[in-house]
Amino acid sequence: MNPIHRAGTTPRYSDSTTHNGVVYCVEVPPDDSAAIAEQTRAMLASLETLLEQAGSGKERLLMATLYLTDMADYDVVNAVWDAWVPAGTAPSRACVQVVRLAKPGWRVEIAVQAALRD
After folding, report:
1. How many C-beta atoms lie closer than 10 Å to residue 99's C-beta?
2. pLDDT per residue over 3-34, tens digit each?
3. What are the strands, taking DSSP E only, across the chain?
4. What count of other Cβ atoms lies within 10 Å of the Cβ of residue 77?
5. Which residue, 14, 7, 17, 43, is CA-closest to 114?
6. Domains observed in the chain
7. Residue 105: DSSP 8-state
8. Please, which residues bridge with residue 36 across strands?
9. What is the tens place of the pLDDT at every residue in 26-66?
10. pTM of the entire predicted model
11. Best CA proximity match to 118, nearest among 55, 25, 53, 47
């Protein structure tokens, strides 16, 4: 049987969930008043910590889905993303525009899946 492990669990969500060799994480901006580049940098830093704590890392990303409230932010988000992802390890990725996110100041949200280290 493959157990499910949850970390940072609240009544509504877990910071990360691992199952069958894969970790699942979602990050939102910690500061909803920050500019898009800072929102993205802060989320990626937090995501990196979550991945490491789960026994994975950004170089082990399998899939990422980015949700933007405005596609005008696409180039800025990509610049931050490209600087964060180690060369040669880019995951499959989708980027979609949404009408809004859960908090009015959030301009980006990221969901990822990554392989655990052996």
Report:
1. 5
2. 999 999 999 999 999 999 999 999 999 999 99
3. 4-7, 16-19, 22-27, 61-68, 92-97, 108-115
4. 22
5. 17
6. 4-8+14-115 (3.30.1330.40)
7. T
8. none
9. 999 999 999 999 999 999 999 999 999 999 999 999 999 99
10. 0.94
11. 55
